[in-house]
Amino acid sequence: MDLAVKWQELMDNPFFRNIPYKVELNKYGTILMSPASNWHGILQFNVGSEIKARKKSGVIIVECSILTGEGVRVADVAWASDEFFAEFGDKTPYPKAPEICVEIKSPANSCAEMEEKTRLYLEKGAYEVWIVDEQGKVNFFSHTGKIRNSKIAANFKL
After folding, report:
1. Distance between CA 47 and CA 45 in Å, rounded?
2. Residue among 67, 134, 124, 71 nearest 100 (CA)
């Protein structure tokens, strides 16, 4: 099954427009949906704004779809360098992860799910994955594991 084609079908399906859920696909093409709270949206905006303040170039993407080895996953926030954006533009889903992928953890997310998404984004080329908890505490991960702070957006704090 071509997950990118299935993803395009979802985007074109009027049933999935304007629903208050984050939609993803697993590796079998099964639709995964999770509700998002207003606080989740506030954290998404705050993270994107803080990254933009530190990175004067590049593009902030909210709800960034990425074709991974285990389906289409949607990072809550991503930062893509100008070089990344020049190569991939608004291709949907991205065949490679932007440099920074951020997940905002909600009560519906398990630690195992966050670990899986971290692994998948790093496998697809992300330099860093950030996990933000409901209190706004950020944990940073790279290919070497958990890191103290972002090397791309130095001294990042919410």
Report:
1. 6
2. 124
Interatomic CA distance for residues 76 and 124, integer angstroms = 16
pTM of the model: 0.90
Coil, helix or strand at residue 77: strand
Confidence of residue 1 (pLDDT cuts 50, 70, 90): low
Mind listing the pLDDT tens digit for each residue in 84-127? Answer: 999 999 999 999 999 999 999 988 889 999 999 999 999 999 99
**Domain ranges in the chain?**
36-147
Q: CA-to-CA distance for 137 and 135, rounded, in angstroms?
A: 6
Q: How far apart are CA 5 and CA 7, in angstroms?
A: 5
In CATH terms, the fold of domain 36-147 is tt1808, chain A (3.90.1570)
CB neighbour list of residue 153: distance below 8 Å, 6 or more residues apart: 50, 51, 54, 55, 79, 100
